[in-house]
Amino acid sequence: MTPKNKQRIEERITNQIKAGFEHAEQLPVASISYFTNNTHLKKTSIHPITNPQEPLKRRINKTLDNLLKSNIKCVIFGEDIESPYGGAFKITEGLSTRYPEQVWNTPISESAITGKAIGMAMSGFSPIVEIMFADFLTLTFDQLLNSASKFSALFKLNDSLPLVIRTPTGGRRGYGATHSQSPEKHFLGIPNLNVFAINYLLNETALKEIYSVNKPTLILENKSDYAKPVEPLIGFERFYCRHSKTIIIKPKCTAKITLLCYGGMLSHAEEAASYLLFEHEIAAEIICPSQLYPFDDVLLAKSLNQTSKLLCVEEGTDFANFSSQCIAQLHSKGIEFTSNAISADDNVISSALNIELDQLPNKDKIIYTVLNWNH
Predict the structure, then answer these.
(1) What mean pLDDT do residues 35-62 have?
(2) CA quadruple 370, 271, 322, 127: dihedral, nearest 10
């Protein structure tokens, strides 16, 4: 490089910096409103739901298919997701055959996979990443905490960073200590990171809204729900609130207790509620949010204003979890109620299926807790 060329480059850079300073000086003083999310919905309208006929794994597959079909910028990648394998639980089965330019396999590096997805989201794509087991989310944590959740603000992307990380979670399959955990509590409370835990009652319309959000989103799919049939629930009515993405299951008589659960615990809560109603005449209302963070507690508070009793049930361990935060959040608003919580044993999940099932919350533990509560 000649001295004259070097001088021209230095002058151009100096002028760019000077112009940037002059532009910044003309802008109003920065305010916290830039970082404040004012889109949190407080609507609580609910409507009855029709029980889905297809298993959840098929509903998710069709949802992903529709997203790929409707948006050429939608891409899906992860470990072993191409056909004929279609992922460890066959959720992406057939998609790489129908959309070979939009669905592909990756090497085994969850951090690199997530980093690539963040870059593609910043470049105008809508990536959906599969992490084979939720236990491996720990390898994505740095990318989600220090990059994905911050880039929208740091690079002024107008709250638009369409990145989805989806993963099978939970136990009850005998897969052992490193393939059976429910680690979602470690991701709750990260600003600008949505956390969802879907359940087996959500239809394709609800799933599409969750899987196509426009900001960094972690979606947990309980693996025990993938093939679970949806049975009628006699004595109850099932409702859905689109705005808070919450399933509400109301008894056909006055509820005496509120059961809060999410994801794979919903079916266990339903079985327990049915037994309590018909065997002990204790009516329970179930609140099952899909969105764990940010969490809209309006429907939960509404239920507690009637029952004044809250039993939280989740498959993860008990300290500093979703349940404890919900209880604290409600008490901070001055809502008066008594509470109890059921969670997994504070121990490593066993590879022996019979021990694992005993370590996790279930219908019997819910029934026992309710019956031993002073009503």
Answers:
(1) 83
(2) 180
